[in-house]
Amino acid sequence: MIEATPAVPRVRLSLVAAVSIATVLLDQLTKIWVLRSFQEGQILPVIPGLFNLTLAFNPGAAFGLWSNLADGTRQLVLAGTILLAVAMVVVFLKQTAGRGWLPQAALAGILGGAVGNVIDRVSYGRVVDFLDFYWGSYHWPAFNVADSAICVGVAVLILLPKPKETIPDSPS
To answer: Nearest Cα to 108, choosing from 15, 42, 29?
Structure first.
């Protein structure tokens, strides 16, 4: 008699691929539009007092982190950070395989966002940003679709209920 083996949770590769590819495409298409439509620093008010479209370039990481490092050092630090982030996403994808589609979609958004920004670094030597939210004289650093996907993905992972831990029975 053949014994049934429990199903091993799997990463939903089609979901991960679809969300990652959609994120990269939306990110790159919006950046192409902004690069063709704006000069650096040009501002288009969308919601006065709250939101503009503007072309800005970020040579550093998130919110300008490491932008003041020397060119060779900055690229090396960014490459290491990107490789580490992608490796962590792959590990987390395997760890969340049994937790449903939402954590895997969130991780796929993070992966797609990272890839979108890597494409910019390879193509332009810096990341194209254009979403400018502000209140009064305070401006949040400009960002893009890739950054948004990364932030939303991280927020979803933080807000998801944690899996219940099982405590093994103690030997009697």
So the answer is: 15
Secondary structure (3-state) at 9 = coil
Could you give the residue numbers annotated as active site?
A: 129, 147
Closest CA to 130 of 68, 41, 66, 63: 41
The answer to whether 65 and 117 are in contact (CB under 8 A) is no
Q: Comparing 99 with 32, which gets the higher pLDDT? A: 32
- Mean pLDDT, all residues of the chain: 87
Domain chopping of the chain, boundaries:
13-159
* H-helix or E-strand spanning residue 138: strand 138-139
* Cβ proximity of 73 and 60 under 8 Å: no
Q: Which residues contact 52 (CB under 8 A, 6 or more apart)?
A: 43, 44, 45, 46, 132, 134
The answer to whether 130 and 54 have CB atoms below 8 angstroms apart is yes
CA dist list (Å): 107 to 82, 90, 166: 14, 9, 25
**pTM of the full predicted structure?**
0.82
